[in-house]
Every structure is written in C-alpha cells, then in structure tokens.
C-alpha cells in the first residue's frame, strides 16, 4: 500500500510525486514513514514539447535520477484498471506480469495522445506525439538520401496547422534541406501544410497570425487550406479537394485526447476525455482521487479551462501532489491558481512568436526575443533537476514559478 500513488511519468506525474514528497518530508518528525510511488511504463520523462526537434532520441530525463534521490519508488508498469472503492490499481509490467497496487491517495496523470485518423494508408502517417514516433520520423528522414530518387522524395506534408503542426512544418524545412543538400537537391525541398480550417493557427489568435504567415512565406511553406487528407499510398497524399501531392513524408498533428485510463474513473469527463476536478484538483465525486496535467479539466483564470499543455501540466501536478499529501496529513488543500496564460510558438529558422493572455496579445520585445524565450523554455525551464534532491523539492513547491528571467538577446 502506498500513501500516494501517482499514475504517469510525464510533467504532471513527476511534479505530483515531487510535491507530495516535499510536503510529507516537511512534516515528518521522525524517520521518513510515508511512501510515494510513481507508476509509469517507461524509465524517462519525455520532453514532449521538444519532439519536433531534429534529434528526439536525446529528449528525455531518467526519472530515477530526478525522483530516486528523494525516495520516490518507480514502478515500471502500465495501469489498466482502477478500482476506486477498493483503492487499487491493476497494472501490467513490460514483461506482461500483472499486479495490484493499493493506494491511500491516487493522482491520475496519464497524459494525452494524438488522435490518429482512420483512412486508407493511415499507417504511413508519422506523428511526433511520443518519443518512439518522433524517432521513427527522424530515422525516416535520415534514410531519404539513400531512397530512390523520384517525385516527392523531398516533400513533406504536415496535416494540421495548429501549434504542433506549425512547429514541425517550419522545422522540417531546415531538416529536409540539410539532408537534401549533399544530394544536390536542397532546392527540391517542399513542405506543405494541410489544414481543414480556412486559416493557419486558428486557435493562436489574430495578432499572431500575420507573424506566422510571414514566417511560412519566408520559409516557403505552402498551405492547402479548407481541406484534409483522404488517402495515402507511400508515394502521394490525396486530399479531399481532389488534388494529390507527391510526397514520401506525411506527419499527422491534429487533435489530442486524454489518456484512455480516465474512463476507469467513475466521474464526469469533458469532450477531450478529461476528468472533472474541483479547485483543489480532487476528481469530482470520487474519494481520494486527484487528476493533473492533460487528464484534468481544471479551471484556470478568468473562467477558462486549462489547456492540454506543459505550461499547465507542471503546476497542476504540483498542486495535485501537494493536496493528496495534505489530505493524508489532515491539512487544508490549496487551490490551483496558474500563472497568466502565455504561448511561445517556434517558427524554425524564421524565429518564434509569443503571446500573453487568453485573447493572445502579441508580446513585443527586442529582435529575437521570442526565439530566445523558446530556447529558455525548451532547454531550461521544462527540464527537472537530475541528481539534485534539494533543488527538486524547492521547485516542487507550488508557489515557485516555472519561469526564470530570460537572458537578454545579443
Ligand atoms: C510535439 C508537441 C509539442 C508540444 N508543445 C508544447 C508547447 O510548446 N507548450 C506546452 O505547454 N505544451 C506543449 N505540448 C503539450 C505538452 O507536451 C503536454 O500537454 C504535456 O506533456 C502534458 O503533460 P502530462 O504529464 O499531462 O502528460 P504526458 O507528458 O503525456 O505524460 C503522460 C505520462 O503517462 C504515462 N502513461 C500513459 N498511460 C499510462 C498508463 N495507463 N499507466 C501508467 N502510465 C501511463 C506516459 O507514458 C507518460 O509518462 C506539446 C506536445 C507535443 C506532442
């Protein structure tokens, strides 16, 4: 039996385990007596927001080096069922062994997954939702120089012009050119964004859109708007408007949904499959269960609901972990109160764009400010400290902001 059992080793789960540990340590009077466990199938935290980058295999942090030093036990398994009455989780280890893990308080932080379409040739679609998928795409691109020459060899179609689609499309221009150049084919590189809406970045705000459009023009990213993909055959991508694009690479980015495990919790869920939680991130109507990250439909500032984002997953995890431990100790819970909403969208070699607030006001700054900000987010802020228990517990405090000052641009 674990005092706090956290399901999922992403941003929300890692910080939930750290925050629960922090509070339990702070209140221990004698030898440490409380147990916190993290149940997750893989040994690493995957830096998911960076999976559009060229070398995804290195975008991970070993969970044991982060949580091991503070005594969090890692259980390598996938949760398959949750009995919220008996307070037990059924889990399957990588070797197929099934076990039952009992808990006193549970934090559900099993994240989300891209919703892949069902259409002929869908298996040929790449995505960058998980580390293995991003590595598969990187391997596929690296093999292109050896692939037979012909139409579409250096063309990539990206489906979905939302946040992820824009980041991978703009990045693919440089990645494909670097691979094509030694073959004398840099000029043949084509990246085409296919989007069902009539505009790119429909959810990213009207102020950011002109910046995004300029960046796409600068990089030569083509757009096919108001249409979608209907079929793929490995040589070409067929669109609903009747046109065909010769392309050897296609990447699907549209739509995310909360982990299927949320269906195991007898509570209301929203249209994205996220569990309804109260201000303290307790799952509504289920004793002893909290939700955080992409599995939680929590209230954010100004009547908004959190987005499935790293920006929200980290503070959600800290509050859920803190409150799960507080409940055990008979302490009052704290309410989730996120920092003001911001975005920072990478635009590859064309820079980046940053907005603030839910109406997405463009953030002005010196030349290169947004790109520098994105670099700070990707390379520093989202990475948890490894082998540094003091720093981990300091940052696990829900009152400590994730953001640090941005270094001035040259
Ligand atoms: C390409 C890309 C770019 C992104 N860019 C940004 C960005 O710029 N800014 C931003 O804020 N957000 C961004 N996001 C979104 C962000 O990555 C997610 O919102 C964030 O990772 C959510 O954290 P999480 O801990 O809830 O879930 P995840 O990071 O998805 O982690 C879930 C964890 O649960 C584990 N798990 C799943 N099922 C089970 C199970 N049944 N049992 C046990 N463990 C399980 C998984 O293995 C994983 O360890 C991006 C996402 C992608 C894919």
From TrEMBL:
Family of the protein in this entry: Belongs to the NADH dehydrogenase family.
UniProt KW keywords: FAD, Flavoprotein, Oxidoreductase
Descriptive protein name: FAD-dependent oxidoreductase
Cofactor(s) this protein requires: FAD
Domain FAD/NAD(P)-binding residues, every copy: 2-314
Species: Streptomyces decoyicus
Pfam families, A to Z: Pyr_redox_2
